[in-house]
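Protocol step 6 of 9: fold each sequence in the batch and record its structure tokens directly after the sequence line. For illustration, a two-sequence batch is reproduced in full.

Sequence one:
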Amino acid sequence: MTSDAPAPSREPFDPSDVTWTPVSRKLIGARLTVAAIVLVPLLLLTVVIAVAAGVTWVWAFPVVVVLLGGWIAWLVPRQVGAMAYAERADDLLVRHGIMIRSMVVVPYGRMQYVDVNAGPLARRFGIATVQLHTAAPATSAAIDGLPPQEAARLRDRMASRGEARLAGL
């Protein structure tokens, strides 16, 4: 007995018929910069408090901040490496996450509008975010860390595919 059905994919987050496009590695620098903007002043504050207190155990707070910074520096490249998207004929797939993995499937016909945005830090790093909006918030998705040209191309492509799918209804 043979089946004509396709073989099941290795796992639900990596369909066998999909070619994933990773986000830009520049996102790592942007996220680490945000972490440094928060952690460096916190580290300085905890060091000043430890020096002023003159008590040995208070130095545990700067140590915790340094350990947190190290953990973030280790984690962010892995998180960015897990982020990708794939364009298919009828929908767009967006995946992210290491421990808690997520894959969102956004049907082109359900898209209401597509945003591209880039704040000052994102522009400094040469990246942008594409936000896909649908009627159901659960199927809305964002793709962080795209080069601006790719973000604009994806926005235009998603918008035209969405319009084509709506016209076919």
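Sequence two, same batch, same settings:
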Amino acid sequence: MADAPRRIGLPWYRREDYPRIRDMMADRHNLAPTYNAWLAAAQNNEDVGRQAGLRIARIIIEPDSFAKWCAERGVEPGSAARMDYVSERCAQESD
């Protein structure tokens, strides 16, 4: 019996949230300057992951929920926090 494809979460943003998300991130310089630029890169990453046999889950990062999550854990909103948040949410969705 073959193993099921590994499921990974990708941070996903809604167009209307992107400016606020970008402003709140400590590493905003690492995020695309526009939603359209971010979306093109994100869709490419999603395609590459699927071609590699991964099950991709789009995990919406909503500004208020993410800010609260970071505050509760005492972490700075940035790439490490985004990845931890997405991993946690992805695991919750697959339960």
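Proceed to step 7 once all outputs are recorded. Observation for sequence two: The beta strands are 7-12, 55-60.
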